[in-house]
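Duplicate of #3305? Posting structure anyway:
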């Protein structure tokens, strides 16, 4: 496992796409404290790593989009 951390890593996501995920998550925190009250820190961490590895989509985009729609009403 030690060697794995020393190799370069490339993800399908751009730097700006990852920054956008962080920004959306921060907006959710600022508005509601959390959009995922039933999830642990570790579950969120796993979800983030799976997103980076392209094993799953964004966990925050749907919640963020719903929040933006409510604010536009």
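Output from current build:
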């Amino acid at each position: 496992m030690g060697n794995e951390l020393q190799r370069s890593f490339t993800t399908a996501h751009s730097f700006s796409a990852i920054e956008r995920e962080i920004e959306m998550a921060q907006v959710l925190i600022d508005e509601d404290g959390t959009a995922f009250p039933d999830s642990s820190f570790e579950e969120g961490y796993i979800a983030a790593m799976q997103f980076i590895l392209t094993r799953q989509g964004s966990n925050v985009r749907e919640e963020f989009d719903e929040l933006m729609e409510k604010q536009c009403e």
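Confirmed duplicate; merging threads. The chain is about 60% helix and 0% strand. The chain has a mean pLDDT of 89.
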